[in-house]
Write a structure and sequence with these properties.
The chain has 376 residues and is an alpha/beta fold. It has a seven-stranded parallel beta sheet with strand order 3-2-1-4-5-6-7, sandwiched between helices. Helix 11 links the parallel strand 12 and strand 13. Helix 1 crosses helix 14, helix 7 packs across helix 12 and helix 10 packs across helix 13. It starts with a strand and ends with a helix.
């Protein structure tokens, strides 16, 4: 079987989606020596992927996401490879692609958070773009042979949002943090933290600053915490963009101290930042899976998370939960875990065990089984 994978998000350029795409391909190389794979990459990540399996071939597909080139030129390129099945790891399936494909839906954030606060565009252009997104997402879900959802929460969300879709069309494959095990030499820890102006003790958040991540409430809750925990810092790790710049302005306007913006941190240094934190905080209002809390658990950090349904599905009893819309409840939860050694230690032990339950290799095998099914 000739299988194509849209890997234009491969690696760090695609953030969480990039990690999913990368781990899927790397683990398919380990579990499948039969099918022929064509991995479509952009110029900026073309050298980042080096096939380790002779059945995997790289193809340059330098078409930017959400553009006319993606809609018109990308399908032309795909047809040249006479694919039996194409896998799009994101909803941006070209409308003009008319052969068999499966799609991975990570979440429906774009559908549930249609607000200009999530965009740098003028309102009229944002709503036109939002309409285009809705058309593309619906088309991908309706036309696909099968749909991969990264959690049962996402599966239920798809069924609720698109009631004509049959439940058996959607398969759940979880992500993993099992290989996020980089170990930085202990004598390098202080050097790395100094580079990011981080002084212990600190609480850490890793992720973007989109509105649904709920960082404004987190910051306001932290203002209450530092009244008694005067030396405690809140470290926010995420590449500076429009949303992080806006968050910096919010911190300045609200006059909240002890906030550290670390910007982008590569994995080998992020290991140090995780291991030296006192806890990991995850205030999200909506999530399709939520990989950073699992990464934190694999590093031995207690996790304090919002009680969003998806996080309760993924983390179960290994996190301490709070109401993400209640500022006082966020600060209360952080303070309880900071002060109660018994709760903290229980969370660390449970976190290690919970992180072990997820496997990229198992995810790849389940995806391979789906390929065999969908191509029939």
């Amino acid at each position: 079987m000739r299988i194509g994978i849209d890997a234009r998000f491969f690696g760090p350029i695609g953030k969480g989606l990039g990690r999913y795409t990368q781990k899927l391909i790397e683990n398919l190389e380990k579990v499948d020596n039969t099918n022929q794979y064509f991995i479509f990459l952009k110029a900026e990540n073309f050298e980042e992927y080096q096939p380790k399996n002779k059945n995997f071939q790289k193809v340059l597909a330098d078409f930017r996401w959400y553009t006319f080139a993606e809609q018109i030129k990308f399908p032309r390129l795909l047809r040249k490879y006479d694919l039996d099945l194409m896998h799009f790891p994101h909803f941006n399936v070209p409308l003009m692609y008319d052969r068999k494909f499966i799609v991975t839906i990570h979440d429906l954030i774009l559908i549930h958070f249609p607000t200009t606060k999530s965009s740098t565009l003028l309102p009229v252009f944002y709503w036109l773009k939002f309409l285009a997104y809705k058309i593309v997402i619906r088309s991908a879900i309706v036309r696909s042979q099968k749909i991969i959802a990264v959690s049962n929460f996402t599966k239920k969300d798809i069924l609720k949002t698109y009631p004509k879709i049959k439940e058996e069309k959607i398969i759940v494959t979880y992500e993993s943090a099992e290989d996020f095990c980089i170990l930085t030499p202990h004598n390098k820890h202080e050097e790395i933290m100094a580079r990011y102006d981080i002084i212990k003790p600190y609480v850490i958040y890793v992720g973007n600053a989109y509105p649904h991540k709920n960082l404004e409430r987190l910051i306001l809750s932290f203002r209450e915490i530092v009244k008694t925990e005067k030396n405690l810092k809140l470290v926010l790790v995420g590449k500076e963009d429009f949303f992080y710049k806006r968050l910096k302005s919010f911190v300045s306007k609200e006059k909240v101290g002890n906030i550290v913006f670390a910007d982008y941190v590569p994995d080998h240094e992020l290991d140090t930042l995780y291991r030296n934190a006192v806890l990991f905080i995850w205030p999200t209002l909506y999530e399709g899976f939520g990989l950073p809390p699992l990464e934190a658990m694999s590093k031995g950090l207690p996790v304090v998370s919002s009680n969003h349904d998806c996080m309760k599905e993924i983390l179960v009893e290994s996190a301490y939960y709070f109401d993400g819309k209640n500022i006082s409840d966020i600060s209360r939860a952080i303070q309880i875990v900071l002060k109660d050694e018994k709760i903290k230690n229980e969370l660390i032990v449970k976190g290690y065990e919970q992180a072990k339950k997820y496997s990229w290799k198992r995810m790849a095998q389940k995806t391979l089984d789906l390929y065999q099914n969908a191509s029939k």
